[in-house]
Amino acid sequence: MTRNWHTLTLQASAEVAEVLSALCFSLGSCGLQTDDRGSDVQLTVYFPEALDLEDIQDALQSFAKDQALSDFNVSRSLLGEEDWEAEWRRFFRPIWATPNVVIHPSWIPVEAGDGLAITIDPKMAFGTGGHESTQLCLQALEQYVERDYRVLDLGTGSGVLSIAAVRWGAAHVTSLDVDSAAVENARENIELNRVDKNRVDVRVGCIDDCREDAAFDLIVANIQSRILLPILAPLRDRLLLGQPVIFSGILGREKEAFCGALSAHGFELVEVLTKNEWIGIVARRGS
Fold first, then answer.
1. Beta-carbon neighbour count of residue 256 at 10 Å?
2. Which of 148, 184, 215, 216 is 20 to 30 Å from the Cα of 45, by its Cα?
3. Overall fold of domain 4-90
4. Full strand arrangement of the beta sheet holding 172-177
């Protein structure tokens, strides 16, 4: 069955484009592309077909009005899978997601030196390395994953975090996503990177699909806060005492509320990483 996505195209200054991209993700966007070759930035934003586009456009117009933006126009279209594949091939280029990690498409080989080069053909899965939330996750993951760790990658998307975890020494990664297309894409990318399939279990599922007695040394969840907040308790229960969890997909303005929720669910804050409008939070399961 062919899937379609709503596509919104927006034009804005670089400063406003950063805030707009964060707003679009909070409204349910599943991905976006930026083209900054002109004087302004063009944002191409993708939303699942099932979402009410009228409500999304109303929210964007309200933002434009609040910001007193002149000549703010939103064009819309419907994009099919084949069109999307042509689009990401046209725009996707190697990205240094962190000083030590470069993410590149399979048709553009990259030499990373002492760093880590990860091949990703994203299709409609989130995780090309271009978004701040993915970059913050990789930054934290490199610091906190240790050899022989058992890792849960919740909302795996393209599989980029699972691949990185194995490359940095994790013994095994459980990679879950509620989107079957993302799971298929993650499996393709794991094969592209020649990762031992016995070390990564990629499947459709959510936190409740992990056995209650599952015990992970590290959990990474690059998911919007509105999805993370209701699952903090079951997530905590599947993390070993004192072990780290990495959250991203969180806007800076959500920091206080999210950290408060972590404390209420028995997590201890370790650090907060920031990049533009986005934050990554590292916490540990308390005793």
1. 9
2. 184
3. Alpha-Beta Plaits (3.30.70)
4. 200-204, 172-177, 150-154, 218-222, 244-251, 278-285, 267-275
Contact 280, 137 (CB under 8 A): yes
Q: How far apart are CA 157 and CA 24, in angstroms?
A: 18
Residue-wise pLDDT for 7-35, tens only, equals 888 888 877 888 888 888 888 887 777 77
126-285, what's its fold? Answer: Rossmann fold (3.40.50)
Find the distance separating the first CA and the last CA of the chain, reported in whole Å. 47
DSSP β-bridge partners for residue 150: 172
Question: Domain residues of the chain, as ranges?
Answer: 4-90, 126-285
| Tally of CA atoms within 13 A in the half-sphere of 136 that contains its CB | 27
Please identify which residue in the block is written with the tokens 């240094």: 96
DSSP H or E segment with residue 106? none
CB 246 within 8 A of CB 271: no
Of 264, 252, 262, residue with least CA distance to 284: 262
Cα 162 to Cα 172: distance, rounded to the nearest angstrom: 9
Closest CA to 122 of 82, 160, 77, 163: 160
| Amino acid letter, residue 71 | D
145 Cβ neighbours under 8 A, 6+ residues apart: 151, 165, 168, 169, 170, 218
Contact by Cβ (8 Å): 158, 127: yes
Average pLDDT over residues 251-269: 95
Rg (alpha carbons) of the chain, rounded to whole number: 19
Strand-pair category, 244-251 with 278-285 = antiparallel
Instruction: For strands 150-154 and 218-222, give the pairing.
Output: parallel
pLDDT per residue as tens digits for the range 123-174: 655 667 778 899 999 999 999 999 999 999 999 999 999 999 999 999 999 9
Q: Is-above-0.85 flag for pTM? A: no
Please tell me the distance from the alpha carbon of residue 53 to that of residue 61, in angstroms, as a whole number: 12
